[in-house]
């Protein structure tokens, strides 16, 4: 075989730097290229469609590999897997410093090893070319080897783009077309391959399919003659199919090593169809004697639970004995399990899950007993109604936005001192500016009406500071009156009212109420009848004190200077460097206001973080049923608040409303006769939990009592037939019968029908409310 070994064509790794394959020059140029031109890599090469890459066959040490030509790569690379397959591990050397290059996908590749002067044979028809090439070794190379510009610039091969072949110029002047690399060449050259070699080969050639074929000579099928088939079909009892296993000279057996573990496969459920088919096949094979039941020496003997020592059958009932206690095994019957759950929970005091589970464990057993007990206790209506909640209250704190300037937003409230002064005053009208925290305190009589409140507001605030944009207040009757709403609308003020009985929503005014109370305790006489004479002093003390939210006193922000106190006369007077009305004064005031806003934002963020640690987010949706705290509803006459249920309901959520700073409020469909505002804050509600797992369970609520306290609402009515008069008198007026739903009983099956005479004796206000709704046309009538 001819060989071509021209030093001008073959790149040599020698001291001659012009060869471009010297390892030192190679590393230096690669580092310079990686800094200046990071576009080239084999990333684009391996993603190219099959047939568009130039790959030649290379023989190194009698073993074949594939060499990829990449005109965009600077150096020559060889993969670690190829180094192992070609048995070149002993020639791998460590670089003096790592070489870092950038691939086309912008990833950085670091190379630490190299191979120097590897003799590569490139076969062609009639001979081979021998080149000595140096490579950088990379474990990230997805092919055998890659020949870059260091090789191509010296070897200068010719590429035929149409046929995708590589040609080299021979020393005699002719050209040779190199052999293409094919995956089959490995098999052709090796014949039989060991598993490790085949695995490495498969990893390098994943784009090609491989098939393992067993070939054997097939004979012609032998067909039974028709006359014999007729005889066999006529006498089937004489021609039985063979059964049993064919006798063999050698009988194989599996010997089990003592102490070895039992093999365990993955257990999975079979469908009924699969199980029936498996049983049919097993039965048929056992009858034919081809298989028999397994009797492995390592198998475990199956226990018969009926005869197990833990179980005992007494009078047809199965008992499980644990720790000396016999427990009845309850079958998968919902009625029985619901009955026993009710006896162990309802009849024993409606205690929690642990006590209920203890009662069950002493008497019964079924597989899901503990999980059923927990669900039963969680959905018990009596427990939900009567027990207080120990979890964090619902509703995360979301404060109102900080006003933009003083006098823009106010908080108002009425504080009851519970004592009437000499001048006939009992209430304190509290007005607070939400921005600078400045407050006005106005004494008012207990019988002050809305007209008086409007006049006091104008004299004590509007006259000095103008009209506010918004007013936050609770739902006092004077704030909810039409006269107050008309006055606010006339002056362009927006009213923002909190939900009922939720003081936290108007926290600014409520906080000032506490401050006023403890200041009054310091300065009033024991008789307490002169408290209104101290209001001016109380307001002055509050407005001159530094507020924690703003970092300064309300008077300093309002008056633009700090009012003098008696103690200030002991110190020299500090003259301001800027006079009011100057640009410097305006600039200083604006800067101070900006500092106040920043201080309030910090205080607000700290308050949110502190409060929300002890609260939960509310997730009620429209249509959900909720419990409402009994404290939010009116107290019935003669009924102790302490002995009443903690919650009433459950009632449906109609809407999500409100801008309360500590969470949303909800409109709840409460009965109209309760005469309460139907908007409740999330902290006043509790979720209603129910389940369909115990349909046979009767109502968990106690029997209803006679009296208005137990009637929830009238949901329907009907007319009773009346006998016609015998004479000429006026026909009798038809009597009405009302369908009553009792409080806490949500199942319509528990509703009862009562006549109007019966209900007027127990719940007249419920009947009156229902009849008013009939007159307004809000309720239809059922016609039997």
Automatic annotation (TrEMBL):
Pfam families: Integrase_H2C2, rve, SH3_Tf2-1. CDD domains: retropepsin_like (cd00303). Signal peptide: none annotated. The keyword Metal-binding applies. GO terms for biological process: DNA integration; DNA recombination; proteolysis. Keywords: Aspartyl protease, DNA integration, DNA recombination, DNA-binding, DNA-directed DNA polymerase, Endonuclease, Hydrolase, Magnesium, Metal-binding, Nuclease, Nucleotidyltransferase, Protease, RNA-directed DNA polymerase, Transferase. Residues 402-562 form the Integrase catalytic domain. The keyword Protease applies. It comes from the Eukaryota. GO terms for molecular function: aspartic-type endopeptidase activity; DNA binding; DNA-directed DNA polymerase activity; endonuclease activity; metal ion binding; RNA-directed DNA polymerase activity. This is Integrase catalytic domain-containing protein. The lineage of its organism: Eukaryota, Viridiplantae, Streptophyta, Charophyceae, Charales.
């Amino acid at each position: 075989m001819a060989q071509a070994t021209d030093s001008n064509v073959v790149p040599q790794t020698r001291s001659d730097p012009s060869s471009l394959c010297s390892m030192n020059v190679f590393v230096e140029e690669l580092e310079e290229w990686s800094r200046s031109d990071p576009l080239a890599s084999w990333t684009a090469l391996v993603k190219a469609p099959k047939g568009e890459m130039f790959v030649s066959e290379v023989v190194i040490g009698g073993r074949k590999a594939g060499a990829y030509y990449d005109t965009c790569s600077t150096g020559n690379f060889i993969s670690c897997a190829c180094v192992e397959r070609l048995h070149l591990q002993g020639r791998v050397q460590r670089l003096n410093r790592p070489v870092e290059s950038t691939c086309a996908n912008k990833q950085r590749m670091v190379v630490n090893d190299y191979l120097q002067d590897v003799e590569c044979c490139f076969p062609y028809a009639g001979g081979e070319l021998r080149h000595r090439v140096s490579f950088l070794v990379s474990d990230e190379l997805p092919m055998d080897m890659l020949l870059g510009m260091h090789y191509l610039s010296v070897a200068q091969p010719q590429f035929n783009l149409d046929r995708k072949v590589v040609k080299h110029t021979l020393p005699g002047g002719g050209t040779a077309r190199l052999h293409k690399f094919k995956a089959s060449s490995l098999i052709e050259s090796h014949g039989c391959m060991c598993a490790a070699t085949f695995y490495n080969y498969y990893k390098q050639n994943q784009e090609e399919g491989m098939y393992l074929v067993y070939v054997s000579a097939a004979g012609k099928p032998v067909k039974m003659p028709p006359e014999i088939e007729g005889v066999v079909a006529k006498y089937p009892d004489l021609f039985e199919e063979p059964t049993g296993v064919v006798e063999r000279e050698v009988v194989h057996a599996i010997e089990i090593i003592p102490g070895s573990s039992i093999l365990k496969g993955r257990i999975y459920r079979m469908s009924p169809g699969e199980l029936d088919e498996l049983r049919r096949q097993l039965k048929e094979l056992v009858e034919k004697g081809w298989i028999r039941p397994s009797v492995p020496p390592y198998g475990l003997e199956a226990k018969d639970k009926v005869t197990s020592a833990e179980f005992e059958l007494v009078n047809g009932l199965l008992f499980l004995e644990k720790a000396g206690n016999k427990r009845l095994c309850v079958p998968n019957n919902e009625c029985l399990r619901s009955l026993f759950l009710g006896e162990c929970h309802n009849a024993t005091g409606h205690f929690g899950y642990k006590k209920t589970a203890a009662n069950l464990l002493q008497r019964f057993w079924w597989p899901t007993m503990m999980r059923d007990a927990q669900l039963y206790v969680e959905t018990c209506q009596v427990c939900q109604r009567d027990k207080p909640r120990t979890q964090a209250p619902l509703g995360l704190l979301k404060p109102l936005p900080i006003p933009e300037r003083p006098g823009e937003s106010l908080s108002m409230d009425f504080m009851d001192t519970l004592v009437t002064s000499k001048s006939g005053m009992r209430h304190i009208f509290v007005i607070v500016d939400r921005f600078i925290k400045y407050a006005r305190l106005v004494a008012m009589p207990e019988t002050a009406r809305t007209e008086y409140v409007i006049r006091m507001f104008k004299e004590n605030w509007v006259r000095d500071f103008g009209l506010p944009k918004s007013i936050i207040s609770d739902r006092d009757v004077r704030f909810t009156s039409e006269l107050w709403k008309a006055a606010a609308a006339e002056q362009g003020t927006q009213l923002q009212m909190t939900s009922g009985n939720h003081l936290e929503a108007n926290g600014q005014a409520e906080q000032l109420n506490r401050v006023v109370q403890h200041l009054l305790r310091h300065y009033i006489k024991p008789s307490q009848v002169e408290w209104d004479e101290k209001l001016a002093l109380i307001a002055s003390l509050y407005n001159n004190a530094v507020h924690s939210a703003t970092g300064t006193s309300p008077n300093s922000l309002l008056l633009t200077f700090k009012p003098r106190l008696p103690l200030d006369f002991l110190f020299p007077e500090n003259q301001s460097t800027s006079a009011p009305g100057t640009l410097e004064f305006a600039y200083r005031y604006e800067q101070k206001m900006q500092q106040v806003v920043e201080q309030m934002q910090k205080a607000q963020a700290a308050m949110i973080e502190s409060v929300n640690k002890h609260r939960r987010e509310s997730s009620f949706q429209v249509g959900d049923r909720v419990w409402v705290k009994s404290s939010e509803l009116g107290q019935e006459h003669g009924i102790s608040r302490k002995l009443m249920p903690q919650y009433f309901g459950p009632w449906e959520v109609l809407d999500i409303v409100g801008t309360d700073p500590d969470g949303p409020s909800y409109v709840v469909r409460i009965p109209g006769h309760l005469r309460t505002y139907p908007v409740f804050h999330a902290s006043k509600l509790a979720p209603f939990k129910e389940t369909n797992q115990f349909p046979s369970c009767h109502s968990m609520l106690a029997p209803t009592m006679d009296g208005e306290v137990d009637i929830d609402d009238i949901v329907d009515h009907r007319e009773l037939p009346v006998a016609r008069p015998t004479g000429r008198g006026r026909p009798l007026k038809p009597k009405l019968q009302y369908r009553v739903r009792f409080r806490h009983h949500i199942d319509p099956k528990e509703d009862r029908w009562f006549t109007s005479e019966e209900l007027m004796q127990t719940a007249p206000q419920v009947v009156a409310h229902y009849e008013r709704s009939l007159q307004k046309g809000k309720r239809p009538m059922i016609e039997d």
